[in-house]
Design brief:
Helices cover 61% and strands 12% of the residues. A hairpin with a 5-residue loop joins strand 1 (157-164) and strand 2 (170-178). It is built from 13 helices and five strands. Among the domains are: 149-247, no CATH class; 266-307 and 316-362, no CATH class. A five-stranded antiparallel sheet has the order 1-2-3-4-5, with no helix packed on it. The protein is extended and about 110 Å long. The chain crosses the membrane at residues 12-33, 53-78, 99-122, 369-389, 396-415, 427-446. This is YjgP/YjgQ family permease.
Length: 485
């Protein structure tokens, strides 16, 4: 390796590492902002939040790498151009492709590592992240009774307190409606002047130690006309226990999510796609046999049938049906069509669902390659772009990096959506963003090799001045040739 190669690689690696972590941080913040309502107020441990962020960060690595490569390559060659190092290299007879070559090798290695990461690490991270997020989303909020508000999150109870002291334990004017299954045949109501909320050490039970109150209980069944007995008890001190086990954060078995296409690697996806396609073929044969038996005319068609139907001598089928039988015939035909459509509706939907699952597996298979290849495509855009704009730092390079990444992301989402819906082939839909950006990369490389002034303000100012002088000259010549009256 020559000193020039070491210089360029060393200049590239610093911005790449910095921009990668900044990009990953922004994507993680976007994820947290999206699910902030599901995370806040659940009483989650710090370790659970750390695990969720770690797994989510791993799933976003392949999306952060292309943007990091694009931004760091623009910064690298922008800094070299701003310090006139590119001019010195070109004056020494070194072409643009020569000093791009070492970074091309580095970005190819990054692309290969991105594919290996997407194939072996991301499926495991997706499995853990999706299952953990599911558990968090469907877990109950932390126990928190607010003054003046009916609290119904404890199964079988409705609680209301008029006032809570600053210690968050002393409560006043307590109302408890017990309509749980174990509360007897009727509802029970507890009223108390004040009380204390005491949580056990394992946070499994919450005790309400109430003072100076009444307990009302109705005996008998509500469904009968005979009224039940109303029993009232007074107490000076009464303890009521509430089971908080439903508030505990419980993890489901991750095997429940293991069959999803996002949790599979290339080999597992190939096996799943093959199994799904075989299942689809068997289902199609079953439906075909069902239709053939139910509608026998399918079996009668053979080589003796005419290729095209003979022309009808009547304008309407109703003309060949006697008038007295026309109404009954039309009703029977309409009923037969309705029954046929209803009998085929369920198989059609099931076949469509099976085909959609196959498409999602194929999309996931292609995704592992497209995002890895995007690292190389983004470098082919960023390297010549940086040598053209000749601006370092984070200002101008960041603007161009965001523009091209937005273009990449838009076409990537459009292609994925079309591939999932079957509008495009899965390979063409998932590779759409790279296909769109490759000609742009070739154009920028051509302009950079020819020292183009594509982003030079002076270049456009000169063009503007030439156009302005041409218009002024044209205007003068027009007035000179205009005849006088």
């Amino acid at each position: 390796m020559k000193k020039l190669d070491k210089l360029i690689i060393r200049t590239f690696l610093g911005p790449f590492v910095a921009t990668f972590f900044v990009t990953l941080f922004v994507l993680v913040m976007q994820f947290l902002w999206k699910y902030v309502d599901d995370l806040v107020g659940k009483g989650l441990d710090t370790m659970v939040i750390v695990q969720l962020i770690a797994y989510t960060s791993a799933t976003l690595v392949t999306l952060a790498l292309p943007l990091a490569v694009l931004l760091s390559s623009i910064m690298t060659f922008g800094n070299l151009g701003e310090s006139f190092e590119l001019v010195a290299l070109k004056s020494a007879g070194i072409s643009l492709l020569r000093f791009i070559r070492p970074l091309m090798v580095v970005c190819s290695i990054i692309g290969v590592l991105a594919f290996l990461f997407a194939n072996y690490v991301i499926p495991v991270a997706n499995l853990q992240a999706k299952s953990l997020l599911y558990d968090i989303t469907y877990s109950k909020p932390a126990f928190n009774i607010k003054a003046g508000v009916f609290y119904r999150d404890i199964p079988g109870y409705t609680i209301k307190v008029a006032q809570k002291d600053k210690d968050n334990q002393t409560i006043h004017q307590v109302m408890i409606f017990d309509h749980s299954a174990g509360g007897g045949s009727g509802d029970r109501i507890i009223l108390a002047e004040k009380g204390q909320m005491v949580l056990t050490a394992n946070k499994r039970f919450l005790y309400f130690i109430l003072e100076n109150g009444w307990r009302y209980e109705e005996k008998g069944n509500r469904g009968y006309s005979v009224p039940g007995d109303m029993i009232r008890f007074s107490f000076k001190k009464y303890s009521k226990a509430f089971d908080l086990s439903s508030f505990a954060f419980n993890r489901l078995n991750t095997d429940l999510f293991a069959s999803n296409q996002q949790m599979l690697n290339i080999r597992q996806l190939d096996f799943a796609i093959d199994s799904l396609q075989k299942s689809q073929v068997v289902f199609a044969k079953t439906v075909n046999a069902y239709v053939t038996v139910r509608f026998p005319f399918f079996r009668w068609k053979d080589s003796a049938w005419a290729a095209t139907a003979p022309p009808l001598k009547v304008k309407d089928f109703e003309e060949i049906i006697p008038e007295k039988s026309r109404h009954n015939a039309l009703e029977r035909a309409e009923q037969s069509v309705r029954e046929t459509l209803s009998s085929l509706e369920a198989p059609t939907k099931e076949y469509s669902d099976k085909h959609g699952v196959i498409l999602m597996h194929k999309v996931e298979w292609q995704r592992k390659f497209t995002l890895a290849a995007a690292c190389v495509v983004m470098f082919l855009i960023g390297a010549p772009l940086g040598s053209i704009i000749r601006k370092g730092g984070l200002g101008t390079p960041l603007v161009f990096a965001v523009i091209f990444f937005v273009i990449f992301n838009i076409f990537f989402m459009i292609g994925e959506k079309m591939a999932r819906s079957g509008v495009m082939f899965t390979w063409s839909g998932m590779w759409l963003s790279n296909i769109v950006l490759l000609p742009i990369a070739g154009f920028l490389i051509y302009k950079a090799m020819n020292d183009s002034n594509l982003f030079n303000k002076e270049f456009y100012f000169r063009i503007y001045q030439k156009i302005k002088k041409f218009l002024q000259k044209f205007k003068r010549n027009r007035f000179k040739t205009q005849p006088t009256i």
